Structure prediction request, 467 residues.
Amino acid sequence: MRYVSTRGDAPILDFQAVTLAGLASDGGLYLPEAWPTLSREQIAGLQGLSYVDTAVEVMAPFVEGTLNRQELRDLCMQAYGRFSHAAVTPLVQLDGQHWLLELFHGPTLAFKDVALQFLGLLFERFLSGTDKHLTVVGATSGDTGSAAIDALAGRTGVDVFMLHPKGRVSDVQRRQMTTVLAPNIYNIAIDGSFDDAQALVKAMFNSPDFSGRFNLSAVNSINWARLMAQVVYYFYAAVRLGAPERPVAFSVPTGNFGDVFAGYVAAKMGLPIAKLIVATNVNDILHRALSEGDYSQGTVVPTPSPSMDIQVSSNFERLLFDLGGRDGVALSDQMRGFGSTKAMRLTNAQRAGSEPLFSSDRIDLDDMALAMRWASEDAGQVIDPHTAIALAAARRADVGDVPIVTLATAHPAKFRDAVERSTGARPALPKRIGDLFDREERYDSLPGTFEAVTAYIAERAVPREAG
Prediction:
């Protein structure tokens, strides 16, 4: 399997190289040169398999030439052995049509664990036996940071510099990052929004003066290996609800378009997905793009669903590339225009290509709260604000009589205040992190400028020539 950049001017890489690289050297994002497919018989054969065995079948084509099936299985066994539920991502029925796919049974109580526990092991494996030292830089709107830090804390050959927007993540999210005191972990609170933090990370990769000094890599969903691991749970859920004999719809709370793009990959691989419902909060650039063709950056509005408070969705570029005939030159021009004007219209081909599979919805605070209350009172399930946004979109979507799976992306205890306001009940932290508020915190606050952040990292990171 070989990987190409969405902007068409970066080296074609194998799976190991693309995992360690993160962002492409031309500023684009990597994705497979061609989509592998599973036949109806192969998809039917997933029925009854464990999550680990499902993961091996789904991911094997993407790692071909780098890992064999036994090596892949060993990594999956280790990654998912830390999850608190034997099913890893269990399904919970809400009513006759609606289901929750619980993705929060990993160590940091969020769906990012599904990918990052696996990615941490890949980093360690690919660096083993070399003198290469990796400098991981990332931006987080809350959950990526804690999941990446848990996965990489104490691992040799890797330092992690994680940027989060100061005051714009929940207390639980922040403490899950800042109470990890491993010597290779550096937490940075910046002035600004998640979009500002994400822009800083991309600027570091795109600065030859800075990136040339360090072996930079990424743990955000710009890293292909992260998205690949998320494709698995679409297959795992769908076959339990009758695929491939019947299609299944998914409602996905999203800001950066990574989780829902994994669903698109599953569909390209042959999984019969009736609809991918892109659920946004009031920061609705993705809803406007898919419903009106208007991909224009607005001002980020802080909400009780901070992981979705995003106005520049990195992974949307991957979809636009695939729908636009995989023309890297044309997409590079399109993204360059967006970078300068903060506005972009989708082409006719991009709009037409998205319509059969995608729908979208914008959920305001009242509808989010109503969905949380309905889940609690009518279905006996306490859900977090992000999941509530996707559930609200699912309940008013028109997809016929197919099952609709809402991705439950975070444990409600990560957003205790918001859950309590809507349901009257304050969810307790699971025992495994019950002492979170008693732990010591450690982080540094910086201005949200390229100069301040790169100077901080340069003082602490291992230079390329030394590693």
Summary: The longest helix spans residues 224-240. The radius of gyration is 20 Å. DSSP finds 19 helices and 15 strands in the chain. Residues 282 and 364 are 6 Å apart (CA to CA).
